[in-house]
Amino acid sequence: MTLVAPPPIPRAAGSVPLLGHAVQLVRDNLGFIASLRADYGPLVEITLQPGTRTLIVQDPDLIRAMLTDLGPGLDKGRFFEKMGQLLGDSVVTAAGQEHVRRRRQLQPAFARPEIARYVDLMRGATTTAVDSWAPGRQLDVREAMVELSLEMLAKTVFADSLDDATFRRLRKDLSVVMNGVGARVMLPDWVEKLPLPFNRRFTAARDAVRATIDRAVAELQESGRETGDMLSLLLRTTDEETGLPLTGHQISSEILTLAVAGTETTASVLAWTLYEFARDADVERRVLDELDTVLDGRPIAFEDLPRLPYLGRVIRETLRLHHTGWLVTRRTVTRTQLGPWSVPAGTELAYCQHALHRDPALFPDPLTFDPDRWLQEAQAEAFTPGAYLPFGAGKHKCIGDRFAVTELVTAIATIIRRVRFDLPPGRTVRPVARATVRPSTLLMTAHRRTGSTEQEQEQD
Ligand code: HEM
């Protein structure tokens, strides 16, 4: 038998000394990554940190292999290392056995009965947000959705242990930090050390966020109050190796991880869904009709979630066309076989969900928002496995997937029964990638829906 050597892995054009591909990435990171998919094959090398090889994995089979079969043997890589500078060690940055242990500690907070309990809090937070939007006035919908997502997470994670002013500050600092993490992935490490205002702002915001969460954890720990939220659940958790309770620092790192992993992502998906409704009245009408039929005027409850298949497809399609992930990384620890390629230890591997989900070879007419492409499960399964990875795959698959879908369905159902949004004519909204991919700016006018499809008796 003759072994055929795999073709050499191409290097993307345009890398320069000291900066690698930072110029292309800073100018238009999504465009650059999408161009790699169009111009190169299953694997292509780019330079993020000069001296380190970064392979962009483009083929769905190889992406799946990286996440699942090879997953347990890989480190998390550059993106998560940068996140770790903010979060400290947490489930999102850990690898190997340490990851398994941390994930097990968090898992109970995401069990089905817990999520069912959160729905009322999520709906209450959404109702309050909707009531605060002035009818007929322009609203920065992306900002409003970040605020709402943080509010939903805060209500479920810390209950009411943060006062309003602290909460607003946390929200501002978190957004500085998230943008900083996004930039630090693209730029070589030496840029972080320069005494630039951008770096100073990042450090100050990171320290402030950390201090706020540390304080909330310490206060709850001292008070011994049982608030019924995730925070008090973690305070009761013990380390399975030592039998000791988790330290305040460990808990605050995990909470911070959830705040980072679960806010911008959900917010972007909410904002894009409302954008798609403003662009296509038919899609919105079908969702409203479904809500009218299933809910018959009452507020949405956990049991309703599986009874809203069209809304489910809308969210599925938003997670395809407008995915929030632009660079998910891993790193080889030993020489690793990826398909036919043997990759040396210390190589960064990365994939981009945003580009993957828009590949015309995988999804016909990929830029069209069409919830009915998911109509038949059989048809959905006809898509190439590994082509649609909204929550990733393997051991690091999103722990908050059920929580996120619950938030998305609850919030969308509550918003659109009360409000419709107008997009100024001719306005197109671009995706931009920072730590996550989000709409550039999304200004829309909110109008109260007359003859609201949700009766106003709800008192959250
Ligand atoms: C629509 C919203 C969301 C999307 C699209 C999303 C997507 C993802 C993806 C793709 C991963 C895998 C990353 C990897 O392969 O390394 C992930 C991991 C993770 N997500 Fe989410 N996520 C969302 C919401 C949430 C929420 C609401 C939470 C928590 C409240 C959360 C917490 C996490 C955590 C802790 C991890 C790390 C899991 C691990 O490494 O074991 N996510 N998410």
Amino- and carboxy-terminal Cα gap: 71 Å
SSE pattern, N- to C-terminal: HEEHEHHHEHHHHHHHEEEEHHHEEEE
What percentage of the residues does DSSP assign to strands (E)? 5-15%
Number of E-state strands: 12
CATH topology: Cytochrome p450
Q: Order of strands in the sheet with the most strands?
A: 1-2-8-5-3
What are the segments in which pLDDT stays under 50 over at least 5 consecutive residues?
A: none
- The overall number of domains is 1
Q: Could you tell me the mean pLDDT?
A: 88
User: What CATH first level would be assigned?
Assistant: Mainly Alpha
> What structural class do helix, strand and pairing data support?
alpha+beta
Q: Biggest sheet: strands, sense, closure?
A: 5 strands, mixed
- Tell me the name of the CATH homologous superfamily: Cytochrome P450
What Rg do the Cα atoms give?
22 Å
Describe the structure.
With 460 residues, this protein is α+β, with helices and mostly antiparallel strands. It has a single domain (22-448), classed as Cytochrome P450 (Cytochrome p450), CATH 1.10.630. The chain has 15 helices and 12 strands. The strands form 4 sheets. A 5-stranded mixed β-sheet has the order 1-2-8-5-3. Strand 6 and strand 7 (341-343) form a beta hairpin. Helix 8 packs across helix 10 (248-279). The longest helix is centred in the middle third of the chain and has 32 residues, at 248-279. The chain is globular. The model has no long low-confidence stretch (mean pLDDT 88). Bound molecules: protoporphyrin IX containing FE. Residues 67, 91-92, 103, 257-258, 261-262, 265-266, 269, 324-325, 328, 390-392, 396, 398-400, 403-404 line the site of protoporphyrin IX containing FE (HEM).
